[in-house]
Specification:
- By secondary structure, the protein is an alpha/beta fold.
- The chain has one domain (3-223): Spore Coat Polysaccharide Biosynthesis Protein SpsA, Chain A.
- The protein is 38% helix and 18% strand.
- The protein has helices spanning 13-19, 42-49, 61-71, 91-99, 125-141, 157-162, 172-182, 206-223, and strands spanning 3-9, 30-35, 52-55, 76-80, 104-108, 115-116, 153-156, 187-191, 193-194.
- The strands form two sheets. A seven-stranded mixed beta sheet has the order 3-2-1-4-7-5-8, sandwiched between helices. A two-stranded parallel ribbon has the order 6-9.
- The radius of gyration is 16 Å and the shape is globular.
- The two termini are 28 Å apart.
- The structure holds guanosine-5'-diphosphate and magnesium ion.
- Magnesium ion (MG) is lined by residues 81, 83, 85, 197, 202.
Length: 227
């Protein structure tokens, strides 16, 4: 099955400069960038490299997933954020698992063999939050995953379509995991090593994220399979 690698960026020129050439492009059949409206040279970088880039019509990381789905040519979608946090070496492993028949493959930062080295989380708040929301997904929907919300993941395009995701921001991954579980998708994980950000700035504000995750959690409790 053919694969599209979707790069998600909003002002990530420093990450792209450092990482792009290290991405194992041979593992995929198409590279597509979905950009949130960068003004730091990210779009020029894509042009120079001949990478197809789409500037989002609607802002937000959640909408970037949906626009990626619409513009990708292939069935296997691998979402990758080139900000340094995600390890490009894992891209072929995600492709392999999608080809083995998994509908959703999450790069887990918390399973055996994984590691998280995210330096801008000195108080461990994000780490605890991650584990808390993963626990909720496992308790309420029996997802049996170790990392419900990492953005580094692959999913079959036809399966993502059926989720009718309406999340606009960083809560998109949480919603995808919950709805995938509700629909009985085959979910797999691979261990990953979360690295330090290369440069630029984190866009996700921890307090806003906590609020949005809680709102989405309640919504998913109420809506069952009606989405
Ligand atoms: N296309 C797109 N990418 C975004 C948007 N917001 C954030 N990103 C990208 O998503 C990735 C993860 O964002 P980041 O702020 O580092 O969040 P965190 O790593 O989850 O804390 C980075 O590559 C960002 O550039 C957006 O609105 N649109
Ligand atoms: Mg990041």
């Amino acid at each position: 099955m053919k694969s599209t690698l979707i790069l998600l960026t909003l002002n990530e020129i420093r990450g792209l400069n450092e990482l792009y050439d290290k991405i194992p492009i041979d593992a995929v059949d198409e590279v597509l960038a979905i950009d949130g409206g960068s003004t730091d040279g990210t779009l020029e970088f894509y042009k120079d490299k001949g990478i197809k880039a789409v500037v989002q019509e609607i802002p937000g990381r959640g909408r970037a997933f949906i626009e990626g789905m619409k513009h990708a040519k292939h069935e296997n979608l691998i979402f990758f954020s080139p900000d340094g946090n995600e390890n490009q070496e894992d891209i072929p492993k995600i492709v392999k698992k999608l080809n083995e028949g998994y509908d959703l493959v999450i790069a887990s930062r918390f399973m055996k063999g994984a590691k998280s080295d995210d330096s801008d989380d000195p108080l461990y708040i994000r780490h605890l939050g991650n584990n808390f929301y993963t626990l909720l997904v496992n308790l309420f929907w029996r997802a049996n995953v170790t990392d419900a919300i990492n953005g580094f993941r692959g999913i079959k395009k036809s399966k993502l379509k059926q989720l009718h995701s309406d999340a606009t921001g960083h809560e998109i991954e949480f919603q995808i995991t919950i709805r995938s579980t509700k629909l009985g998708y085959k979910i797999g994980e691979i261990p990953t090593h979360e690295l330090k950000r290369v440069g630029g700035q984190r866009k996700a504000n921890t307090a806003v994220m906590g609020y949005r995750f809680t709102r989405f959690f309640i919504k998913e409790l109420m809506n069952g399979k009606r989405f």
